[in-house]
Amino acid sequence: MTAGRVDYASLSAGQQLAVKYFVVAMALFLAQMLFGLLAAWQFLDPEFLFGIVDFNVNRMVHINAMVVWLLYGFIGSIFWLVEDEAGVPLVGCKLANITFWVLTVAVAIVVVVYLVVQSGPGDKWTLWFINEGREYIEAPRWADIGIVLCMGAIFYNVAGTFVRGKWSGIAGVLVLDLIALAGLYFAGMFYTTNLPLDQYWWWWVIHLWVEATWEVMVGCIMAWGLMKTLATPRRIVTTWLYIEVALMFGSGILGLGHHYFWIGTPEYWLGVGGFFSALEPIPLVAMVVHAVYDAGRHSFRSNNHPALAWLIAHAFGNFLGAGVWGFMQTLPQINLYTHGTQWSSSHGHLAFFGAYVTIIVAFIYIAIQKLRGDVWMSADLRGGWRWKWSLALLHVGMVGMTIALLIAGYEQSFVERAVGGSTWAAYFEGQTQPWFVEAMWWRMGFGVLMTAGLVILLVDLLRIGADETRTSKSLDR
Ligand code: HEM
Ligand code: HEM
Ligand SMILES: [Fe+2]
Prior knowledge:
Number of helices: 16
Radius of gyration: 22 Å
CATH class of the largest domain: Mainly Alpha
Helix content: over 70%
Low-confidence stretches: none
Strand content: under 5%
Bound molecules: protoporphyrin IX containing FE, fe (ii) ion
CATH architecture of the largest domain: Up-down Bundle
Structural class: mainly alpha
């Protein structure tokens, strides 16, 4: 094994599979950005590509690509760490490879159908074969069933490997979380023509994924990542993991109520949702303390600087995007005014980026270090400007976009909601004010900045360590 040279053959079966998942994830990340740019441009020039790729389609592809690539990132990370954690080779390797291809072809077909059939009546047939019409999980029913089957197969690979090898605290939490994550998806397939009922179940997938099962998933990945990049003792990361899981589920499950304020559910949800969701930032604070304390104890010394930087970005991004930006609008007294404005979008962008994009990028850097023969990735790395610039551009772009959307949301809350009384006319009035229109331009500009950052990131992922011959002095455990 030579440092700096790509050595795919030396990876274990699970890790080779992980690389495939990461490649598709990054391709979809780029697609997500491009469709985001199109959708953002249509805010400024509504006629742009009208009838060719409509706004609703751009938006749908933008957020579906996001959900799918983040899931690919998680699956890749799990396949990367499962054999190391269990101490035995992957169980059901062949099946795992078949699953990867089936899933990837299915995703491609779903997207092509989205783009080919953009409008028309909706009925049972379109529900099964074109579009289910539920934001974030629009995939048609046939794909839903396929996804659940693939998740079952992946579950078998992961749980089977732990069963054959050894269990650990991380392994136990991970396996239980996978059951919950896949099980919740069923709630999104429950079709009814009663809109409040439909929304009621739909939120089980959306909220309970991102604010419960996905958070626990990244807790597991983070625990393993901290052991690898900082050599934090297993005892410490496992203890933290248990605390975080308890807090996360304790607040996140009933925190679901913050989506039940205005959809026709009983009034007690105002109190339940307001109270429990207000507690949700607590585990996120615990995560920041955990990561920063561990990094500080090791004087921020690590054999993988880009991974450590992205792990720290994750800790703060999760806290700010989910904890602070979520908290700002979670009390019903405030949400009455902010609901349905760009506040949600401001929070949605910062939370998904801060909590999930960051940790997956960190993990990919951990993987790449090994893929390149345990190459040097610390101080004065050759070509080190790339990871720093991409990190900076992506973050400046994301924070700028978040602030622009927040300003637009503030203005809507005042003009459309507080002053205009949420009438139809006020809705349009809110979107023609200069504060709103200018914010949309700023969002566009920062989106271009982010896309530049992503392009540099992708180049870096292909090139990092290529000009190095030094190996990392391993700090593992
Ligand atoms: C990583 C975790 C999180 C992610 C990815 C996330 C993402 C999102 C997204 C995308 C939406 C918009 C949903 C829609 O299309 O209507 C949303 C809504 C919301 N989020 Fe979060 N969120 C997270 C955590 C939190 C936390 C911890 C809180 C509370 C402390 C919170 C409070 C809210 C509220 C109140 C809304 C509803 C806004 C409205 O409809 O008026 N979120 N979230
Ligand atoms: C080039 C950068 C990006 C641009 C220009 C962009 C633009 C947009 C636009 C125009 C929308 C539709 C908003 C609306 O319906 O009012 C949207 C929605 C959304 N985007 Fe992005 N986006 C970008 C990057 C990202 C990233 C990196 C993420 C997360 C990882 C993300 C997550 C979301 C989410 C969750 C929504 C739905 C928000 C909601 O309904 O509240 N976007 N984006
Ligand atoms: Fe939520």
